[in-house]
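Progress against Task 2.4 (sequence-to-structure conversion) is shown through the following example record, which the project officer requested during the mid-term review.
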Amino acid sequence: MNDMKAPAHLIWALGVTQIIGYGTLYYSFSILAPAMARDLSIPEDRLFGLLSVALLMGGLLAPKAGKWADRFGASRLMVPGSLAAAVSLVCAALSTNALVFGASMIAMELASTFVLYSTAFAAIVQVGGSKAQRSIVHLTLIAGFASTLFWPLTATLHDHLGWREIYLVFALLNGAVCMPIHWWVGRFPRELADSRSAANSSGDPAVPPGNPPPRNAIFLLMLAGFALEGFVLASVLVHMVPLLTALGLGTAGLMVSTLFGPSQVASRLLNMIFGGRLSQTVLAVISAGLLAAALAVLLATTPWLPGLVAFAILFGLGSGLASIVGGTLPLELFGKRGYGARLGWVTAARQFSSALAPFAFAVMLKAWGASMAVTVSIAGGLAAVVLFGAIALSRTRTQQRSAAESLSSSNA
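Structure tokens generated for the chain above:
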């Protein structure tokens, strides 16, 4: 295993593509959804239902995409992914009815499987050697500006252009900016020696010695935790501006929501500086806890502006950590062998819950009101805290048992 980290210019280049990818394929949707629904003559909740189906299809593809990343190299998948993203945005812009638009949304989500975090993280691990975890933090630090840039950018463009013209602009960004960058990234050599040395080693250094609990059980706990976290994140992020408006904030909702992106960046910066002292399992507990705490503050203080600012900051901090541990926790728990495939399952778990979240949250908002919808999300965040906490407790007990066995062996 080499001791290199991914080059800084590689991280910055991938960061640009993540900002554009998340901004155009994800964050812009909630701003444009009302206009889309009117233009396509369908109810808005049905439009979010189409998004849910598209997310589900993307989740079904994610494990397979992860295996392809391990086999062919993650960076090599990103060029056709960028092309597919551009084409699907053009098809959405030119769609004449809800059926064609829904098919375009599915194509968009399938393309995102090859260009967003899961594939980018795998590319970094394949290039970055033993310091890939730190490089992942650096990438998420840069990509955290996606919402900060694209929420107000989309809203500003929408003052002058229709949603179809905006999607054509976004298609150009994916094709003319992201695709050449991904082609360039694909020229970096893949670290093949890593997988060989890992395969020849007697054990995985990321797994504690001794008698750990079944790894399948830990893996399932991790997937369940990420699924619940994904539900909370997707519910609020897709509906951020409409939710804040429904809670009585009005036009200030867009301004408050712009604090979310810098808070994401701040959490990643703090993690980069101080996070080395904490395990990724503990950080997973903290991230889920911050999401639940943020929503509790929102519920308790609305429409008090300082409380809403606190919500945006706390939720951004939790989301920022969640995006990091989504890539680093599987690496810490299970090592680098099969990382792409394992990360594909993590993406699938998040996508499946995220597929339900926009539609379910829209229905809850309409049927029960904002307060009850937020309460359900708080419960989801707390459940994720419990699951990640169980993993942390299990690892602590395993390490203590291993230390005791080592001590008794040395005294024998």
